[in-house]
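Kindly inspect this chain:
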Amino acid sequence: MSDSYNVVGIGNAIVDVITTAEDAFLETHGMAKGSMTLVDETRAEALYTAMGNTTMTSGGSAGNTIAGIASLGGRTAYIGKVHDDVLGTAFRHDITAVGATFRTPPTTSGPTTARCLIFVTPDAQRTMHTYLGACVTLGPADVDAELVAAAQVTYLEGYLYDEPHAKEAFHKAADIAHAAGRKVALSLSDAFCVNRHRDAFLALVDHHVDIVFANESEIEALFETDRIETATERIRAMTDLAAITRDARGSIVVSADSVIEVPSVHVEHVVDTTGAGDLYAAGFLYALTTGASHRACAELGSAAAADIIAHVGARPQSPLARLLASV
C-alpha cells in the first residue's frame, strides 16, 4: 500500500479559550501553575466567567500536531470526538481548513464539545483547565482502520488515556498500524498525566509504541528519577526512537544507535508556550516521514516550536513550509 498520509493523530478534540492572567489570579482560583487539570462542566463555566478577554481557537495536543504537519506540507488525518454543536462545528472547520482529513462522526447527545481554558502568565507559562466533554465518548469503534493503515505514523495523545474506552482505542490503533507495517508514536503529554498512568504508559511504550515524545519532566516522571541520563537510558532500552525536549536547552534524540543533542532555536520574545511540544512533534514527524536524519528531525521540530511560542495560540498563523529552507 502506498503511503497516503504522513501522520494520523488520535486525541482530544478541544477548543482552546486563551487569556492572559497574573500569578495572583492563579493563586486566587487554586491553580497549580504550569499544570493541566481536568475539570467538570461546572468548574469550567465558573473559570470561564472569571476570565478576562479571550481568544478562541481549535486545539487539543494531537490536533495541534496534525495542523502543524499539514502546515509544513504533509498529508494528515485526525480521529477525535466532538458534539454536534457550535464548538464542534468550529473544530471540524478548523482541522479540515488546514487540509487534514477528519471524518469521525459527531455525537448528537451526551456531553458537549470539549474546551480547554488556558491562562498565560507574564513569563509565558500556560496553566490549563480542561473540560473533556464529548472527548470521553471516543472508543475503539471510532478508530478508522483505513486511515491508520494508510498512515506512516499513528500519533497517540497521552492526555486521552484518562478514559478506559480511549485506552482500548489506542491498543486497537496500534495493532492496526503494526499489522500494516506502520509506526506508532506516543506523546506523554504532561507529568501529571504520567503520574496518573505510569504503569499503563510503561506497558504501552514497551509493547505498542515505536516513537516517544516527552519533555524532561515527563520522561523523568515516567521512570521516577530526577536524572535525565537515567531516563534517557531507560527509554532507549524500551523503544526505537525518543525525542526529549528541554525548553531553551534544546532536545535529545535517543535511538539504539545514538544519543543526539540538538540546540533550541532562539526566540527574541516568548509570548505563549502553549503548543510548543505539539509543534516540536509536528516538525519532527514531518521530517521523519519524509526521510530526514534524526538530527534534521529535531532541528525542524525546534524551528516549529520556536515559531509557535512567538505568538498567542497553538496553531500556526502562517504556513510553516517556509521553515524548510532554514533547516
Summary: The first strand starts at residue 5 and ends at 10. The CA atoms of residues 71 and 319 lie 5 Å apart. The mean pLDDT is 93. DSSP finds twelve helices and 14 strands in the chain.
